[in-house]
Structures are given as structure tokens and as C-alpha cells.
Amino acid sequence: MKNNEETASQVLNGRTISMSKSITFFIISLVINSAGNVLTLVTSAQIHPSYLGSAYWTAAEANLAVAFGWNLFWTFLILGVVITILNAILVGHWDWRRALGNLIFMVPFSALIQVFEDFFLGKYPALFGGFPPAKTPFMIGFYILLNFLGVAMIGTAISIYQRVNLVLHPADDLMQILRFKYFKGNANTAMWASYIPPTLMAILAFAITRQFTNLGIGTIFAFLFQGGITGIADTKAFPHLKHQALDVGKD
Predict the structure, then answer these.
(1) What mean pLDDT is reported for the chain?
(2) Which end of the chain is flanked by fewer CB atoms within 10 Å, N or C?
């Protein structure tokens, strides 16, 4: 898909937007991403039997959280550190600024994940009573659409903060490294390659619990289309925002 391909020569080595604009774009994308992630989790949990699933990384991390008895905050944070180390290996050198940026991203992102999870589950009843279980075909269909919307929100958010490139989620930094260093700017292929670590996580979780949770048609949708959505969002969501200060190491 043409919209998913952008070579490293077409992106910027420096920055053309101010720090205040960069921070604004980053905050917007962070909120969109965390809300989208939790939306996929909650809608999946409210359909019984559970066959909807969540976004690919989220599903794998949620399974690992169950396997080790961790909450989502610690699961996202610990695995973020592991992927940060992998990114350094792929780039070919350790960059403390980049690693610190990954950590800076993970702390508010992990916290927002917990906040949105509590919100969507109705733990703030004065604001929102939570999504009820889906007991009718209409509600099931509505939750499926919300799940797909969550995936689209994630893909769009990834596009925005990858282009800002201020600080990145380690998984999205991984995808960007793969995209511009190994796959000639193709977002789809890079996204699929970046799914290798969460696939290994899911296998490990299954080996421990002998069950899969949060895996279903929503996960398949994310696997097939999230990279494409990110590529399309590069040209549709804030189209004048170009990739800033790209650094993926030497070829």
C-alpha cells in the first residue's frame, strides 16, 4: 500500500516543529493510544464467551500479566524495559537518551492504561458506570466496532508520536527501527515483524497457564490492519507533521 511506504530519505534528520508543539502532539497521541488499548481489552472482556480479543501487543501483555500475577502497570513497564534493550541491539549502540525516552514514555502510558481501565470498568461511577456485559446481538456488534475503533486509535496514535519522535513506546520504537532500517519505510511489514516479541510472550504465557485470554477476532484485525492504519494516518492525521530527527542506526 503506497501510503504505508516512506523511505528514510523522505523523513527529517532534524526538527522543524517547536518543542511546545512536539509535547502537545505527544500528549494527544499518548491519551489516544492508552484509551484505545484499554478499549480493546474492556470490550473483549464484556463478551462471553470471549472471542473478540484486544490489540496484539496488549493481548500478549495481558496474558503474561495473568501468568505471572502482575497488574497491567508493572507488566507494561517491565516488558518495555526488555524491548528497549532489544532496540539498542538493533540500532547497534546503547543510547541513554533514547532509553530514558522509552522509560519516560512507559511511566505515564502505564499509568494512563490503569486509569482508563478503571474508568471503562466503572470504577468512577460518578463519571461513567462502565460497559455492561454484551447480552444482545446489537451489543455484541457494537462492542466489536468499539474494539476495531480501539485498534484504529492505537494505529493513529503510533503514527503521530512516531512522527514527533520525542519519546516513544519501546514497541513503537522497535517498529520504527524495523520500518526505516530493514523494510524501506513499509509500515505494514515492519508492524508484522515487530509482532515477533509479543508472539513469544503469548507462547510463554500459554505454557504457564494453558489458556489464552484477550485473543480473538479483534487481535486478528489488529495483526492484519494496524500497520496499514499507521501508514495511512501518516498522511491523514496532521498530514503536515513529518517524521522528526529519525535515528535507526547504520544499515
Answers:
(1) 87
(2) C
